[in-house]
Amino acid sequence: MKYRKLNGDTTMKEPYERAPYEMSMVPVGEAFIRTASGGGPVQVSFQDGLRTWSDGETEVLHHHFKTFIVPEGVQNNDICGYCGADNGPAGEYRNGFDCCICGCN
Question: What is the DSSP string of 13-43?
Answer without folding.
Answer: S--STT--BEEEEEEEEEEEEEE-TT-TT-E
